[in-house]
Structures are given as structure tokens and as C-alpha cells.
Design brief:
By secondary structure, this protein is of the alpha/beta class. The structure holds S-adenosylmethionine.
Length: 232
């Protein structure tokens, strides 16, 4: 479905995004994580981050599913000062690192990190929007279906779901992404969805889906799925 009901709100400049990302990278003490953060922000460059960020509400409670070390939770919190972020990740070590950096920013009031499978996490407060960045292609297909069903449970009708993922075409770009994903984690599962498959997966759980193709100078077939939960 491609109804044009989800409109972006532009408010970030490239200089501001760059300043925010540098601040985030420098906040990680461990050089391995700092190098990883640098590479991650190179892949998710300023333009891509701005393209994602423009859809997020500038206030309210945003859930970052599979937040890892918290890079993008920090980015979204630092780019709008009325935004509260909740980062949930199953990896306890990554969440501990994210909490350490949060203390440096003095953002304890506006960012919460929880170590949990998002399928099990019980939310105390309503969630206004969910971001899921490069997670779904890292889990088996059944797990991806369960996750999308969970997102539909968490969000109220009209709630926003932003899924940034990799599409399966052109295949040379997908092969490039596969190579880098394998370098990062050789044994981890990988399942790339063609954009039409991803639309079907999201629509099956009651989301209206709009595809936002993201052009990159690096050979990644990035796609942003801008989804709105439909009324039951
Ligand atoms: C490839 S990393 C992406 C991290 C971050 N979103 C980014 O873009 O840099 C995927 C993350 O999802 C987490 N994850 C996978 N399944 C999860 C689940 N069911 N609940 C919460 N986190 C999960 C993993 O631990 C990992 O940190």
C-alpha cells in the first residue's frame, strides 16, 4: 500500500547531524566500539540519518528495537530535545555500554535502555513510534514475523513504525552487504527481503506501508519502510 499519509518534517541540518554523530562517537571509551560506531555512522551517513529522522515525531516516547550500543537512540534524542528514547536490546553487554555513555551525556531523564527480548518486555508507558534499524535481516524469518507482530501489539492505531533494512536487489549490492555482514558476524543468520516481501510481511500485521528508497554512494541497497498501524 502506498497511501501518501505519512509526511516528513524537516528540521535537521547536515552540519548539526555531523556535530551530533561526532559527539556520540567520542563518548565511547573503548576503541573497538568507537571504531564500530565510526563505521556504523559511515554506513548510516548524515543523509540517511536525516531521511530517517525527519519522519520521527519531535516529542513523545520512541522505542528503538535492537538498539545495540545505543548509537541511534542517542542520535534521535540529541536531535530533538522533547524526544524520549527507550532502547531495548537482547544483548546485555551492549546495553551496559549504552548506559555508561548515557551518563556522560546527562540524558538519564530522556533515554532509557533495557536489556530484554522485545517480545518479553512489558511497557510501562505508551509508545508513540518504533524504529528498527538493520535488525530484521539478522534474524530467521519466523523470528522476523514474530517481531513485526509484536510491533503491531505495542503501537496504538495510527502509531508510526520505521523499519530501515536492506533489499535483495540489485543482487550485486546485496552481495556486498552480505560480505560485510559476514565479516562482522560469520555465524549469524542472514535473510534479506526483497522490498515487496517486506511490504507483505509488514502489511500482514496491519501496517500501511510506504517505501522510501535511500540513495547512497556506498553500494548498500538501503530501504526505509515508513509504516502506520491501521485501525483494527
Ligand atoms: C545488527 S544489530 C543493529 C544494531 C543497531 N540497531 C544498529 O543499527 O547499529 C541488531 C541488534 O538487534 C538485537 N536483537 C536481535 N533480536 C532482538 C530481540 N528479539 N529483542 C531485542 N533486541 C534484539 C541484537 O542483539 C543486536 O544488537
Amino acid at each position: 500500500m502506498t497511501k501518501n499519509t505519512i509526511m516528513p518534517n524537516h528540521h535537521l541540518t547536515e552540519a548539526r547531524s555531523r556535530a551530533i554523530t561526532l559527539k556520540i562517537i567520542r563518548a565511547y571509551d573503548n576503541w573497538v566500539i568507537r571504531t564500530y560506531s565510526y563505521i556504523r555512522f559511515l554506513i548510516m551517513n548524515m543523509r540517511i540519518l536525516e531521511e530517517i529522522e525527519q519522519y520521527l515525531p519531535t516529542s513523545g516516547q520512541i522505542l528503538d528495537v535492537g538498539c545495540g550500543f545505543g548509537l541511534f537512540s542517542f542520535f534521535f534524542a540529541l536531535s530533538a530535545d522533547k524526544r524520549n528514547m527507550l532502547g531495548v536490546d537482547i544483548n546485555t553487554r551492549r546495553i551496559a555500554t549504552a548506559c555508561g555513555v548515557r551518563a556522560k551525556f546527562g540524558l538519564d531523564e530522556r533515554i532509557c535502555f533495557e536489556s530484554s527480548d522485545v517480545g518479553d518486555y512489558r511497557f510501562d508507558e505508551p509508545v508513540d513510534a518504533i524504529v528498527v534499524l538493520d535488525l530484521l535481516h539478522h534474524v530467521p524469518e519466523k523470528a522476523a514475523q514474530r517481531l513485526v507482530a509484536r510491533f503491531a501489539e505495542i503501537l496504538p492505531a495510527g502509531g508510526l513504525l520505521l523499519v530501515k533494512d536492506i533489499t535483495a536487489r540489485p543482487w550485486l549490492k546485496m552481495a556486498f552487504t552480505w560480505l560485510l555482514d559476514k565479516l562482522m558476524d560469520f555465524r549469524g543468520p542472514l535473510r534479506y527481503y526483497h522490498k515487496d516481501e517486506m511490504i507483505t510481511l509488514l502489511a500482514a500485521q496491519g501496517f500501511e506501508v510506504r517505501v522510501h528508497r535511500m540513495i547512497d554512494i556506498l553500494p548498500y541497497p538501503h530501504v526505509l519502510y515508513v509504516c502506520r498501524k491501521l485501525d483494527d
